[in-house]
Amino acid sequence: QALSEITGMGGGGGDLQDLRARPLTERRVDMHGFCNPSDFQRSPYLSARGNIANIFCGSTEEGYKAYHADKYDEDKNPNGIINFGTSENKLCFDLMSKRLTQTDMNLMEPPLLQYPDWKGHMFLREEVARFLTYYCKAPAPLKAENVIVLNGCGSLFSALATVLCDPGEAVLIATPFYGGITQSVFLYGNVKLVYAYLDSKITGTSTRPFQLTVEKLEKALQDARAEGVTVRALILLNPQNPLGDIYSLSELRDYLEFAKRHELHVIVDEIYMLSVFDESATFHSVLGMDRLPDPQRTHVMWGISKDFAVSGIRFGTLYTENQDVANAVASLCYFHGVCGPVQHKVAQLLRDR
């Protein structure tokens, strides 16, 4: 239904002009941040979903084309374009290229060239469990059977949205947030985002700008329910992208208790967990908590794109104690697997403390 509303195809959805004229509260699928609807030409070669995917692709393509045609270079092209649009760390290339070309990386055994367990090779999942146990300060060793490996955290967001929500249902998230999540949860799963709006100035019970509180989560949830939107999960980004906020243990516990009260799954994205450099700030992983309020509905993500500055090596990992969720996500790993030789390289990288 949401797709037909946006593309004006079937279901009495109306056209894009009508949709744009409707109040924001009546259109939870926030497509208009990506392109101007008046510029959208529906392709007769694509399905409704295909047209939506085309919008997402086209909205970024123009900027990238301009950037790649005129890249900034301090000496050769000082008036060129600087890309502020991609969250990518390029500062460690010298270190990473040296480590990734050492001889222990170049293994080519038959199991690496064959179909793996779709959750990932067990040698890698065991290494991920050990790595997260150490760096998340887990009170007990994390278990390899609770680890799933996919080709990046975008794929994980997509898979989790698809298996936790039905089409047209929603996930709650504080805004501002990393915009790629919109695309990840919507393109396959047709899952919407409901926003808990954060204030840029200190207001009410807040003690700092952009502070996330349970009250703001409650308001967003109740507003969505009043509009007839079913919310199935809460996304927490910690450290937060783009704000850089690092949640305290008590804040994390409050958010998780809120989710438990409303039987919401919690997807915790900790992809920047090893990139905290302010000595006055201490990162606390959800996996380091003594007791999770609702362990069967708490799912933690991490990847190597940011902390290891290798976003081109597509690797993301999920830790969940819920085997139903793990198996459902694993069925989608068929489409989002990490190739065997790369799994070996990542395991070696994580093993090298």
UniProtKB/TrEMBL annotation:
Gene Ontology BP annotations: amino acid metabolic process
Pfam families: Aminotran_1_2
Signal peptide interval: none
GO molecular function, one term: pyridoxal phosphate binding
Domain Aminotransferase class I/classII large: 82-352
Domain of life: Eukaryota
Keywords: Pyridoxal phosphate
InterPro entries (alphabetical): Aminotransferase_I/II_large (IPR004839), Ethylene_sulfur-biosynth (IPR050478), PyrdxlP-dep_Trfase (IPR015424), PyrdxlP-dep_Trfase_major (IPR015421), PyrdxlP-dep_Trfase_small (IPR015422)
Protein purpose: Does not catalyze the synthesis of 1-aminocyclopropane-1-carboxylate but is capable of catalyzing the deamination of L-vinylglycine.
Protein name: 1-aminocyclopropane-1-carboxylate synthase-like protein 1
Lineage: Eukaryota, Metazoa, Chordata, Craniata, Vertebrata
